[in-house]
C-alpha cells in the first residue's frame, strides 16, 4: 500500500500545476493607482521644485526652438532639397531634440515642452491646474526667446525665409490643416501616455523602455507626414514663438489652427487613455 501511495505521489509530481502566463499572470499587487492631482495646490507655490520645473520647461523649449528653427532656415536657404537635409532632416531635428530634451528634463518637470502635452496630462489629472498654467506660460516664453535668438543671428534671412512659422500650405483648406494637427497631436500625446504609464512600467518591468525614445520617434513620424500640409505644429508654443518673432500676416491668418488642433488632439488622447485603455471611471464605480 505504501508503494502504491508513493507511486501516486510521484505521478502527481509529473504534472505540476500550471502557472499563469501572459496577461493572466498580471495582478494589481505590484501597482496602486495614484490619486488624481488636485485642481489647485497652493502648497506648490512655496516649493523650489515647482519653480525649478518651470525653468526647466523654459530652457528646454528655448533650445527646442533654437535648433529646429535653425534647421528649417538651413533647408529654406538651399537651392533645392537635395542640397540640404530636406524634410527628413527637419523631421529628425524635431524628433531628435524632443528625445534629448525629454530625457534631460523628465526627472525635473516631466519633460512636457509642449502646451498640448501639458493640457492632455492635466485632463488626465496628472498635474494641477496651477502647474499646468505655469508650464504653458514658461513653454511659450521659452519658444519666443528661442525663435528670437535665431532671428538675432540672421535677421534678414529670417524674415525672407518665413521664420519657421506654421501656415496651412497652398492647396489645403483650413479644415485639412486642422485635421492634420488634431491627428498628429493625438499620436504624440497618446505615445506620451503609453510611454509614461506607471501601471505598464510595473507590469512590464522585465521589458526595458526608455520613454523619451518613442516620444521623439512619434514626433519624427508626425513631421514626415504633416510638414507638407501645415509645416507641422502639434506644439502651440512652437507655433506661437515663431509667429510672434516672424510677425507677418500670413503667420497669423491660420494661427488658430495650431492651438485648436493640438488641444483637441490632446483632449482626445487623454480621454482615450483614461476611459478606454485604463478604464479608470469604471474602476471607481466598482
TrEMBL record:
<dbReference type="Pfam" id="PF00230">
    <property type="entry name" value="MIP"/>
</dbReference>
<feature type="region of interest" description="Disordered">
    <location>
        <begin position="1"/>
        <end position="34"/>
    </location>
</feature>
<dbReference type="GO" id="GO:0015267">
    <property type="term" value="F:channel activity"/>
</dbReference>
<keyword id="KW-1133">Transmembrane helix</keyword>
<feature type="transmembrane region" description="Helical">
    <location>
        <begin position="132"/>
        <end position="150"/>
    </location>
</feature>
<dbReference type="GO" id="GO:0016020">
    <property type="term" value="C:membrane"/>
</dbReference>
<keyword id="KW-0812">Transmembrane</keyword>
<keyword id="KW-0813">Transport</keyword>
<feature type="transmembrane region" description="Helical">
    <location>
        <begin position="209"/>
        <end position="229"/>
    </location>
</feature>
<protein>
    <submittedName>
        <fullName>Aquaporin PIP1-2</fullName>
    </submittedName>
</protein>
<feature type="transmembrane region" description="Helical">
    <location>
        <begin position="256"/>
        <end position="280"/>
    </location>
</feature>
<dbReference type="InterPro" id="IPR023271">
    <property type="entry name" value="Aquaporin-like"/>
</dbReference>
<comment type="similarity">
    <text>Belongs to the MIP/aquaporin (TC 1.A.8) family. PIP (TC 1.A.8.11) subfamily.</text>
</comment>
<dbReference type="InterPro" id="IPR034294">
    <property type="entry name" value="Aquaporin_transptr"/>
</dbReference>
<dbReference type="InterPro" id="IPR022357">
    <property type="entry name" value="MIP_CS"/>
</dbReference>
<feature type="transmembrane region" description="Helical">
    <location>
        <begin position="85"/>
        <end position="112"/>
    </location>
</feature>
<feature type="transmembrane region" description="Helical">
    <location>
        <begin position="50"/>
        <end position="73"/>
    </location>
</feature>
<dbReference type="InterPro" id="IPR000425">
    <property type="entry name" value="MIP"/>
</dbReference>
<keyword id="KW-0472">Membrane</keyword>
<keyword id="KW-0007">Acetylation</keyword>
